[in-house]
Amino acid sequence: MSQRIIPIICLSILTACAGNSVKDSESIQQSAIQQAKSVNLDPQTVITESQNLQIEAQREDLYFFSPTYMKQAEDALEDAEDAIKSKKLPHEIIAHALTAQKLFKRGLENKPTVLKQLKATFDGIEMLREIETNKVLTSDFQDIQDDTKDLIILIEQGKTTEAINEQKDLLSDIAELEVKTLKKTYLSVVEHALDKAEDADAEDFAAKSFDKAQKTFDTFEKFIETSAKQRVLIKEKSKIAVHLAQHAENVAKAAQPLLKLNTETAEDHILFIESLMNRIATALNQGDILNLNLNSQSIAIAQTAETINKRANTQAQIASKPATWDAEKAELLKTIDELKKPQTPSPIDSVSMNKLETNEKVPQPNNTTEAEADTTLNPKPDTGLTAAPEDAKALTTNLATSTEPLAEKSTKETLSATEKADTPVVSDIVTETPNVQESETPSNSEIDESTPVKVVAETPSS
Q1: Where are the domains of the chain?
Q2: Which spans in 260-388 are helix H?
Q3: Inter-residue contact 209 to 251 (CB < 8 Å)
Q4: Gap between the Cα atoms of 32 and 355, Å rounded
Q5: What is the distance between the alpha carbons of residues 197 and 246, in angstroms, rounded to a whole number?
Q6: Are 193 and 246 in contact (CB under 8 A)?
Q7: Taking the model in full, what pTM does it have?
Q8: What is the dihedral sign for C-alpha 77, 81, 87, 90?
Q9: Exposure of 271 by Cβ count < 10 A (0-12 exposed, 13-18 middle, 19+ buried)?
Q10: Average pLDDT, stretch 76-97?
Q11: Separation between Cα atoms, residue 127 and residue 258, nearest integer Å
Q12: What does the pLDDT look like over 30-65, one tens digit per residue?
């Protein structure tokens, strides 16, 4: 029974997916059919899983990034839902639902490929959104979207190379639409201002001003065409062009009444101009300047404005200095407070201090005096004098092992040993200390072992 049903299922699925199919549409369908024959799943569970994938695909906007996969997947899911409502065989329901799952998954996998292969196009679309092409030229923007979707379909069909080649033409269309959008946004306002100047007969009554505004408009239009990426300059140039057009309009409106002036109205016109200048002079606390001609009045007002501006700048600089001094003063006070705080020695400083105190009490062997080193390395030869063996041995041991400065101890130890001994004690080390006189003694090279040498050490005078 199932063997006769399978061909019917295959025909149903293939018919549903006929038309504009993707490159692996047929293999996906066959795989789903074979899997439906071998699994023992609950049809409703499989449909629910397919619906969850549909939600994910919608969230990733596969309607745009994988339109063919999305449409075929939703068609297959709809067939599965219809089949379960019609209480068809489980294998047929599962086959439709599995087909939907596989198509949703392939669509999700296709999106990164589309983004990579058509990156330049998507960058261009994003740029058009930034300049609000989608609002300013909605229809043209939608055409770009549709052309992009056509390239995506080619990729879905496995025609990636063809899609990349056709992308070049689309990028040119995007560049043209960019210029068109900028003209619509920034050039149209200039056109509107020029139209108003024309309505005011600026070509006749303000010919110079209108001609300047018209040339600025033409130059601005070429600038947009050649420098579309210079957004800031385009905005600035648009503002300048609008102002020139408005100036031409205002000059034309002001010039026309002058043609009707007579002796009386001419004076009224001059007085009107003076009233305008006097309004500015009053605001600047300018004195009476009506005795001057119009040009001199304007100069006087300009000089007053310049003086006020300089004074304001100077006052601003003076006002800023106390704030700077206050900040510096606060910083100095903070530093003084830090210095007044008791300094807590760090553990490292404590260790260093302990070492220093130890060094002061017990000098290191390498700090011995030159005389001590010479005595240790080159002991004096026997001078012929005899000493008590025990006292002499003790003296030698004390001298060799003592850690106190020998310059301070040698004399004391020698005297102590001499007082204990019955015979004179040989002083093996001659140390230069205050109030100690050393007898003249030949050098080591001149002393013969058999020659007795007598060394006299005097105690310091009390």
Answers
A1: 2-117, 195-260, 269-339, 368-440+451-462
A2: 263-283, 294-340, 347-361, 370-377
A3: yes
A4: 85
A5: 7
A6: yes
A7: 0.60
A8: positive
A9: exposed
A10: 92
A11: 51
A12: 888 888 887 788 999 999 999 999 999 999 999 999
